[in-house]
């Protein structure tokens, strides 16, 4: 804990003066570029990864970058998404999974989360992920590849959940919002995005216009 | 959106090589110092504020750094907290509110969130914050001070909610977890922590041992 | 059932005349000393135990003296607590557990409540109790002591849940409400209260000022 | 609070020895005569009213003796009822309303509970009571009579809610459980029970077999 406190004092002494002017303008309000939904995992730093500055990314982080589908139980995800779209009018939402995700490992090995009832309950919102992997990839037995595939499929599943949110559906319908599915492989620095034409995840190209509305339209390969 | 994609390519070209060795060790697993719960607000960058590196902070972010009390509706907050405490064994949890928080402004001006049902529903978990401010601070009419006070009181309220989570209660009971309530004033770079002796928030001191288990035990001043 | 009806007639013939004057003044309204939250167990009689008269104790009784934490599901406990604090302005709330509690036995032996889905669901609000006992008292194997300990820990857990109720939080914040955790051992007539200094439950002393705001701040012994 | 503590010590010194033998047998378990559901109101003492001893009445008390109908939100009422019927095998359940009930006054004057969201939410389970009174008794304008009528109608409404509980429905179906609707007028000591033949509440007779399954079968008078 002492390390965090000392880090803050170092920030105040050495770093804050660089940000001072920017923060003064941000007192007036925020106009983020996008809502970035990713995992709570300590190995992910969305601002560093995207080289964005304070004020540019509105960030939602819970275990497994899961987005419960819209329903009677309105929790933090529903509120955060609604606020980003309806109040802040973000134009893009990224759901970004990542390699070596503990929550996705929990999907493949349910007994590992047996003593964690809240985690187990939350993984119900990724039950489609579990089934897609189980029913379509029986042949894929290598654990590392199976986990990465689960991460990828989960990004697509959570995008479907995201579309059930009324504010999101309405903004897509009027052409003011695009959705993006990414996977970040932190150990290589690579980011992959789903390409509907190729029907799998491909490296995020610098020039290509970012994919939006990525649905699987073919059976997975 | 193009800015994000270009940022990622800049990260890959210029930054990743600095992190490469660190990330290689992190493939084995994460051992974060703390769970850091803060708002989705784009003006907050927890890693930059605390000068921590990848692998050091497990981060939960939803609007208003709200933590629903534990109950039958298990969402992302309950799962993320349980995973951090029961699986990752973090020893500290920080709830960090911040100046100019839009969710807290929504508490003071409910008509502003009238058209956002998911936000309104989520703010029910901060209803105690609203009542504490309404019933105890009628005399405080300056809007800016009233908002900052709401941010502060909400950190204390969410700490109470956090204590209802079984994994948290069990870890506190065996002396293996401490809770911390902070407020970050981004426009000055200051961080404040609740001091039970003085009964209000004070600047986070570099040397002092960080406050834990902060409860209000006296009427507010 | 006939016994109840005959008891009522005996009350009307022999007892009511003693209470007549008191009840006439109580028609105007009630001003109870405290909200007393205890179990539905037939062996507990709060009025007899505290030697209070009609008008003095506002009483909430459900199985296991459980207080669901505040949230979107507002049931009888939330309403009763809010009414006691916000409308009746009680200054003290006691949560009183008791020896040989069937609900607490259900926590230790979940298979016993397997066929009672409503009981099982309600015990989720005491999941923190179950975990504290399981994770911290593995060495305590004597069933009788283990049950009594569960009763004690549950009183502390339910006090945490109680603090999440907005009316309670607001009244504590302005110094107008105190919380008390008691355990009643009906077979000896003893009442115990949590002493934060000694970190365990001690006999309720006649002269000592009653404990308020009892939290565990140290690992249990 | 000091009065409660002193009352307990008086109980221990002067009263407990009378109960000692009884309590020793009750350590083995409870076999209550009935589940008695009544209001939290401080002016009601069910044990004194029915002249019952410890071990004889299993008691549920929340504001307004309301019994939420069975559904997805399982709270203390559902658990307590299920435990009483399925585990303790009680043969009778009494719902007992009372004169001058503050919760029923809140039904007639909703603006009085406007600032109590949990009370307001809970009164939704007595919405049928409100409508029956509003739609059938427009001619009854005397406030005192209107309140007493609301108390009576609410007992009948809550009996209907009680019948939706699976454990109750199953026990009624096999002839092992009877339901009773009473109103206690504390200022006179009288208890009234619903008489389906006369279609209104009548004084509880000493000899008559207690009414069970009281439904309104005719329009109210």
Automatic annotation (TrEMBL), chains A, B, C, D:
Keywords recorded for this protein, A-Z: Lyase, Metal-binding, Zinc
GO BP annotation list: carbon utilization
Annotated SMART domains: Pro_CA
Protein name: Carbonic anhydrase
Reactions catalysed according to its record: hydrogencarbonate + H(+) = CO2 + H2O
One Pfam family hit: Pro_CA
Signal peptide: none
The enzyme's E.C. designation: 4.2.1.1
Keyword Cell inner membrane: no
Primary role: Reversible hydration of carbon dioxide.
GO molecular function terms attached to this record: carbonate dehydratase activity; zinc ion binding
């Amino acid at each position: 804990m002492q390390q965090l406190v000392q880090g803050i004092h170092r920030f105040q002494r050495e770093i804050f003066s660089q940000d001072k002017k920017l923060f003064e303008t941000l007192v007036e309000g925020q106009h983020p570029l996008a809502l970035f939904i990713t995992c709570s995992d300590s190995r992910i730093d969305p601002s560093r990864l995207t080289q964005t500055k304070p004020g540019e990314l509105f960030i939602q982080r819970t275990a497994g970058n899961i987005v419960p589908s819209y329903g009677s139980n309105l929790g933090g995800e529903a509120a955060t998404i609604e606020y980003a779209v309806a109040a802040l009018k973000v134009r893009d939402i990224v759901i970004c999974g990542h390699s070596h995700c503990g929550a996705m490992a929990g999907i493949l090995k349910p007994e590992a989360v047996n003593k964690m009832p809240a985690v187990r309950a939350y993984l119900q919102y990724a039950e489609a992920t579990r089934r897609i992997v189980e029913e379509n990839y029986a042949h894929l037995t290598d654990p590392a590849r199976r986990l990465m595939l689960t991460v990828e499929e989960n990004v697509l599943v959570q995008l479907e959940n995201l579309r059930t949110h009324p504010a999101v559906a309405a903004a897509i319908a009027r052409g003011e919002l695009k959705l993006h599915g990414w996977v970040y492989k932190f150990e290589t620095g690579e980011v992959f995005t789903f390409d509907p034409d190729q029907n799998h995840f491909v490296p995020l190209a610098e020039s290509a216009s970012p994919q939006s509305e990525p649905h699987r339209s073919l059976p997975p390969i």
